Predict the 3D structure of the following.
Amino acid sequence: MPVRKKPLAYNSLWQFRNDSWSRLEEASTQLVLAGNRRRPTDPTAETVSGLLDGLAPIERFWAFPGGQRFQKMRRLFTAGTYDRFAAMVSGINRALVTETYRDSQSLDTPDEDGAYQYAAAAAAAEQAPPTRPYFEVLVVEDLSEAQERSLREELRHWRRPDDPFVYEIVVVPSFEDAVMGVRINYWLQACVVRRHIAHRSRHDAATLAPFVGGFRFYDLMDHSPDERAQILARALARVRPELDLYLMTEISVEDLAGRLSHHFRRVFHAREGSLDLHLSLLGGVAERYRAPFFSALRSYSHRPTGVFHALPISHGKSILNSHWIRDMIDFYGLETFLAETSATCGGLDSLLEPTGPLREAQQLAALTFGSRQTFFVTNGTSTANKIVVQALVQPGDIVLVDRNCHQSHHYGLMLGGAMVTYLDAYRLNPYSMYGGVPLREIKARLLALRRAGKLDRVKMLLLTNCTFDGIVYNVERVMQECLAIKPDLVFLWDEAWFAFARLHPVYRPRTAMRAARTLRELLHEPEYRARYEKFAEELAAVTPGDDEALLDRQLLPDPDCARVRVYATQSTHKTLTSLRQGSMIHVFDQDFSQKAKETFHEAYMTHTSTSPNYQILASLDLGRRQAALEGFELVQKQIENAMRLREAVDNHPLLSKYMHCLTTADLIPAEYRPAGFDQPLLAGMSNMMKAWGMDEFVLDPSRVTIFIGATGIEGDTFKRTHLMDRHGVQINKTSRNTVLFMTTIGTTRSSVAYLIEVLVAIARELDAQHADMSPAEHSAHQDAVRRLTAPSTPLPDFSGFHPSFTDGHEPLTPEGDVRRAFYLAYDDSNCEYLMPDEVQRRVEADEQVVSATFVTPYPPGFPVLVPGQLFSLQILAFMASLDTPEVHGFRPDLGYRVYIDKALENG
């Protein structure tokens, strides 16, 4: 078992803060119970002092309890009035845990003598349900304590009972504090930048460094106040693009409005009062809060209607009048059926031709996810993938695709008539997994097609980002180098498992939409043009046809030729909030209107139901709202929960006997990790950011793959029998010796704790079983462990298509016509069944045996064979080594379905 580096105590400042307040409450209570009123050297008092010191540098970034309230509380402790101190700590911690401070007017700052009343107010606030969403606003200006109090009271003065939201301000004095604040405080929804800001923070940021990571140093000394504000706006937008930014200034407001409006939502004159600012803060959040289709559907569902159309279940009529199925209402609730309708008017909309609330909902989704266009899909990302492929690929176009991609890509390319070139990912044979496709492999295939004179037929590169196991590409680098070879190449990134990534600053640069925008901006920069011209001069010195020289260096696309054409499909329901099968297609295509709009519409019509599920559409609308307003918070907690799981498994003395979590070093070979970190996040946030900025592949920390070879239990059995059947723990992906646990925005600390309980219970059972084993049973168990921990039969590479399904043009390249092979098998006379030993005999005799079907074992869950593909000894050895009972495309009684020789001759 590999040696594990001792992890940091916390990977999230939020969790550190929450736990510190809870420990502070416990310690302050102990002070009171012990009667330690005047003993500052008491160990408990020292503990309290240490906790206060730890909280002091971070509380200034939150409105509650806030710096002023925190200092008042600390004075109670310093004065030795522990009873009042404990009461105030208890009230604050209770308000933080229950989040009652978000909606309570009774939690305003008390004086020192009001600590008991404060605790009582906090307890009373728990009983009142929250009525309005709460957010915080960052104000960047160097203010005195009196000025800060005055600004807070001035903004509170404008509150009205019918305001849709309530907010509080957080004041920081400097550029550095502002950048740290937006990374730390997830309640922030807006930032107000004023002209008088300092550059450096007055506080020691060492405590915060492990949590916020490094950030770019800005030299602001030679810049005017307005230029500093603009630089700050760009820095904040890189970290939290969803934030509304406002500028307040005393001079040249009209001129600034014209020059800085790109960065700031509005520019205000500081001497004209704060009412407009208050209304703008509420209005900006209200725009993101809007859920136009959900609101339209809810409004429609509450209207009385007469249904003389399809859908007897509309408004629940066929259920409410039934004597036999009324329990359907009891289970699902009446509102579900009130919202069931086939209407596209009366305030609703048509998914096929949206002009009203659905169109608005999709536009809001495009803003949230950084695309130029977004389209809702109600039958999953499998359909979304087929829509994009059919919209862009014509029969005969060459498409490069990862061979272990989702089956929907194989079927979509088959339906589209593409000539498919399968790319080989790097192999992880110890765990029976594939990783990602190395950039060198992609470039080599493109260059081979260029040598063969077929580059004009290459249409698309299709890759999965991230993979099921959490392997994430350097998306921008891949697209940049591919466009240097094929300037009009279209990219389809299957981000089915990566919908959440847009919402976190570390993940975001590796998403398709962000990388597309970054690349588009890069190609327009004068500095890049100069860099490209130098590159072109160096390239001219390379010997024509010396592709090895191109493989070993970074390639730059010509800014005058390259077109950024990027599509991403997203399973919103997998990693964000949506009903099952809710997905989105995001588009960043410079040529969409000229080259793809009409064909996309036709493909969308082909695969989209004329009766889409309105509940799914409404859930996509609400999921987008949640992503825009609290996505950053939820994804950070998702990561924290995953790291907690990793630490619990690897540091538990019993669990570590039988299992351990695979690290970045286990799943990504060192040659693809120039940053050199085996576990980037455990090395600190700044090191994680460094790795995610430069490594070819990185590992999504929210994917926790646990190696269970030492249990002697195969992965699928562990999942079905031990986790799901006995304990109700649901997972999906396994390999022969691993199980994958994903944390999502719906994962809680309690659910992580339950999983640990279950794993410990399984480990205890294994211990008990081993103690009672007979010598024969013990020997059998050791054989099972050796089988699962020893290197497995190597995973097979793609063997190649039979010549009947290639284009036959010299020089030969590896693309094949999957559609022709697929439909050739529809005539049973063209096929026969062969058992594995007969296939083995023929292949060893140098006969060509060709698959007539997709053959997909579960696990690993990707086609080992596709129609038209040649059997190889490597494939047969791998299939023989599998002990999974589920193999689609293989019949145990008949064997493999293959083509007869005559069919191949005529084909």
